[in-house]
Amino acid sequence: MADPSHWSLVDCIAIVSDAHKKTGSTEGHALASSSPLQAARLADTPRRLEICRKAILSCDFDLLASIVELDSDMMHAVMMTSNPGLHYWMPASLEIMQAVRAWRQEGISACYTVDAGPNIHVLCIEKHMQEVGRRLRKFAGVKKVLQARVGGPARLVEEP
Fold first, then answer.
1. 21, 69, 97, 124 - which has most CB atoms within 10 Å?
2. Strand order of the sheet with strand 9-15?
3. CB count, 10 Å around CB of 102?
4. Beta strand pairing status for 110-114 and 120-125?
């Protein structure tokens, strides 16, 4: 879609739990169809994907934030309403999600997405990376913060 140098985004990952999940991602995916929200989520996927593409190609952080957070929240809504429901968020997860929205109001270009667990990925522009990392480390429930820049295309890595 775009060269890695197109937009200097960074993923600051707040690790709030490094424990293995009771229900793994593969099993969670299989449960998604039991959620009454999954069909609507799937039907809306092309629209969200197009908005995401537009945001990335135009380097529109506010647009990117709106769609990234919506997609994350929708995925977790499906997980929570599956049978059985999967509830992975921890108190620190929610605190960070709320804080990131407040940071954006302060002028920090950051948004959250949550993996299929409790850990929070805070996407930000590179100039805010240090500040976002510093703020994330202040949360009582954060064990560590990892940071990763945009990479190149996917490639096969062979083990030695």
1. 124
2. 110-114, 120-125, 9-15, 144-149
3. 9
4. antiparallel
Q: In this structure, how many other beta carbons lie within 10 angstroms of the beta carbon of residue 145?
A: 18
Full-model pTM: 0.90
Task: Report residue 69 as tokens.
Answer: 């957070």
CATH of domain 4-149: 3.30.70.890
CB 79 within 8 A of CB 118: no
pLDDT tens, 45-87? 999 999 999 999 999 999 999 999 999 999 999 999 999 998 8
Query: For residues 123 and 61, what is the distance between their CA atoms, to the nearest angstrom?
Result: 10
The amino acid at residue 124 is C
Closest of 65, 130, 54 to residue 100, by C-alpha:
65
